[in-house]
Amino acid sequence: GPGLNKYAQAAGLKYFGSATDNPELTDQPYIAILSNTNEFGQITPGNSMKWDATEPTQNTFTFSGGDAILNLAKGNGQILRAHNLVWYSQLPSWVTSGSWTNATLTAAMTNHISNVAGHYKGEVYCWDAVNEPFNDDGTFRTDVFYNTIGQSYIATALQAARKADPNAKLYINDYNIEGPGAKSTAMINLVTSLKAQGVPIDGIGVQGHLIVGELPSGIEQNLAAFAALGVEVAITELDIRMTLPSTPALLAQQQKDYQTVVAACKAVSACVGITIWDYTDKYSWVPATFSGQGAACPWDANLGIKAAYNGILAGF
Ligand code: G3I
């Protein structure tokens, strides 16, 4: 196609990107499209920089999976959004079932961050330093970090990440914050209080796991409200799923929905980029998680371009 990243950059964004994952790296036709910088100027590792992948046993670090994706991006001349440092999910069992005190978990978390962000120091555009800290009602998710350390785990994590890699932009990333609502308000309140305390925070990541025909209203205004806090914003994990089978009507609605999200980012100058959560239905996470749903990506499972692709171009 004409090139999603080319169109994004012409519209003033830094990048249009895609997530990928290590098992996919041997798929040559897939890699050829992923590596085309007309389409993608940025890559996110979907799994291999997460805690369970990088520190499966305490203080033993493995970077081979993350390194493979970083090296692919560097070889292609693409930037990397690193994902993620602190998240309730995909934690090794030594974290979830450890018997922690505030002091011991803070030390383990800080050690994780300094080793992982330290390993990639100078190599990544940004880190999703804290991922999915909120429940949908805007209360804090009561995970092991919150329950043991309290809300200050977020500030501590951001400070440790800044120390480990001073040049990586630090994001808080969450889903269901595309439109206004309790969860978006909670994000605004959190970032406001972090800034007031002088805690390093550079960006809000808006994941964008959406449903065809069910986009929230007010996406542009919501992105602008985030940007007004003095941070950049990015759409970090965009996909727009449907109940299968896909029909021409659903695919046409999906095209419109992709266009709507892209146009909202374009309209907000602090919205620096858009990342799709893999570019092809061949490797989308959706069918395994939402039974009966899928077809969420701009390329179909045979690596053919869908109408959604043209929706993205039209949005730019
Ligand atoms: O590694 C094992 C493998 O050994 C085993 O054979 C296989 C069998 O199921 O599972 C593999 O682990 C899977 C892992 O992905 C790696 O492929 C897990 O079961 C699976 O649950 C895991 O899913 C990932 C999911 O995060 C976990 O929450 C998805 O690939 C990944 O795309 C998804 O990404 C998240 C973002 O990090 C945060 N936002 C939401 C997004 C979508 O869920």
Describe it for me?
It catalyses: Endohydrolysis of (1->4)-beta-D-xylosidic linkages in xylans. The active site is at residue 237. Its EC number is 3.2.1.8. It comes from Sphaerobolus stellatus (strain SS14). This is Beta-xylanase. With 316 residues, the chain is of the alpha/beta class. Helix content is 41%, strand content 18%. The protein has helices spanning 4-10, 28-34, 51-54, 64-76, 93-96, 102-119, 144-149, 152-164, 182-196, 219-227, 248-267, 286-289, 307-315; strands at 15-20, 42-45, 79-86, 126-131, 169-174, 203-206, 209-211, 232-243, 271-276, 293-294. It has an 8-stranded parallel beta barrel, surrounded by 6 helices. Strand 8 (232-243), helix 11 and strand 9 form a beta-alpha-beta unit. Helix 6 (102-119) runs parallel beside helix 8 (152-164), helix 10 (219-227) runs parallel beside helix 11 (248-267) and helix 11 (248-267) runs parallel beside helix 13. The protein is globular and about 55 Å long. The chain starts with a helix and ends with a helix. The mean pLDDT is 98. The structure holds ligand G3I. Ligand G3I is lined by residues 46-47, 89-90, 131, 207, 237, 285.
